[in-house]
Design a protein that fits this description.
13 strands
């Protein structure tokens, strides 16, 4: 069988474009795929390299079989520096043809003209794409990227720690029951001053905004004049922030200024009974290198209870794939995206307990123990404002800085006023 040239390019570490004329339907390539020539450069985040390299290889092989005279160059990127690398590549006219974007990054590149529109109905299962993911790819009734996979936060807990302290290894269903259990766990481990019955990092704004959402608040709202404005100082938002801060102060016995980036380590090192994180963080706790493999049978995931007897609303995370606007191989690039986000590829992700991009393939995961908590959280999930300047708000760390200031003694009222003022300066400005 003829094989496409697949060149692996080194790039970056860690873990959350293109297409000009003809990117929508790949007609030129489809007319005679065997005769198509050129090069397609793809940037994927290194989550794929670490967690589903077999899927990447399979899709690349399928692409190679379809387009035997096309060279595919694949580069893995890290979340910490991907945006800087992409901005530099775009400025220099050296952008990849396909790029993976976190769903909070998409609007920046849509508004800057860096992405090419694609036709939604040419992608499998697009009629049942998770709405929150599709929304982050949509602007002015055009689709600018393709949902790739979803992520939702869940409670990750050491069932043995709960069993030993409370006599029940199951995670509590309500927050009142959870607080009672956490108090018992804290008392049982009081000899260890670094032990957090619930490790909830102070600057963890994704968690804080989940409590804001639970009370009906929001980071910002769109007004009748056509502008976004910060709404953290609103009473409902303040209720959520106060609730979050109370939990942090009561149960986190670590450094309250440390963020959630490596929060799984607290449990892996035996210093936490529970934390709130992405479902995949549970595997980090028990991984041989990053964590403690001896915890494999004890670490479980569950729905995080929130205020008012309801589950805590989760931020809908995830990634999308986009074709860049000046790609000379837009049709080929779009077809690679079709293969990588098609039903067969999405099933491969679902089989690895990764939430797929569509409800059809998500639904079976709602009844699977390893994925039920995350899959069931998706329909009621919240998302960051789809505003031109949201990327700048994140880059300036307005939300984590607000939370840190509160935990250092600043009043919630003043801190939220200051945060709203800072948000208002940035959120309506593209770029």
């Amino acid at each position: 069988m003829a094989t496409v040239g697949i060149v692996a390019l080194a790039a970056g570490l860690t873990a959350c474009s293109s297409g000009g004329k003809g990117s929508g339907d790949a007609k030129g390539a489809a007319a005679d795929p065997k005769a198509a020539t050129g090069t397609v450069t793809v940037w994927l985040m290194d989550d794929a390299q670490k967690n589903w390299p077999d899927l990447v290889q399979r899709v690349n092989d399928e692409f190679a079989a379809k387009y035997p005279n096309v060279t595919l160059k694949l580069a893995y990127q890290g979340w910490a520096d991907k945006v800087a690398r992409l901005d530099k590549a775009l400025a220099e006219g050296a952008a990849p043809d396909v790029v993976e974007l976190g769903n909070t990054e998409t609007m920046k590149y849509v508004l800057s003209g860096a992405l090419a529109p694609v036709e939604r109905n040419t992608f499998e299962n697009s009629d049942t794409w998770i709405k929150a993911l599709a929304n982050t790819c949509t602007y002015q009734d055009k689709l600018w990227c393709v949902p790739y996979y979803a992520g939702a936060r869940v409670a990750i807990y050491n069932s043995a720690a709960f069993q030993q302290a409370t006599g029940n290894g199951e995670f509590p269903k309500t927050e009142d029951e959870l607080r009672a259990a956490l108090d018992k766990i804290a008392d049982k481990n009081k000899a260890d001053r670094t032990y957090s019955s619930l490790y909830l990092p102070g600057p963890y704004w994704y968690a804080a905004m989940s409590y804001v959402s639970a009370y009906g608040g929001a980071i910002a709202r769109f007004d009748s004049a056509g502008n976004w404005h910060g709404t953290l100082n609103d009473p409902k938002s303040q209720q959520g922030i106060n609730h979050f801060v109370d939990l942090v102060r009561k149960y986190n016995k670590g450094d309250l200024s440390v963020n959630e980036q490596n929060q799984f380590e607290s449990m892996a090192r035996g210093h936490a009974a529970a934390f709130y994180g992405n479902g995949w963080e549970a595997s980090s706790v028990t991984a041989p290198v990053t964590g403690d493999a001896n915890l494999k049978d004890a670490v479980k995931v569950a729905t995080m209870p929130g205020p008012g007897g309801k589950p805590l609303p989760t931020f809908i995370g995830g990634s999308a794939l986009a074709v860049t606007a000046k790609s000379p191989a837009a049709a080929l690039a779009t077809d690679w995206v079709r293969l990588f986000t098609g039903a067969k590829a999405q099933q491969a992700l679902a089989d690895k307990d990764i939430l797929p991009n569509n409800l059809t393939q998500l639904n079976p995961l709602k009844n699977k123990p390893a994925t039920a908590a995350a899959a069931n959280a998706v329909p009621d999930a919240w998302f960051t404002p789809l505003a031109p300047g949201w990327g700048a708000v994140e880059k300036q760390k307005i939300l984590p800085d607000m939370l840190t200031a509160i935990l250092k003694g600043k009043s919630v009222d003043q801190a939220t006023k200051d945060a709203d003022a800072a948000i208002d300066q940035l959120i309506n400005k593209a770029g």
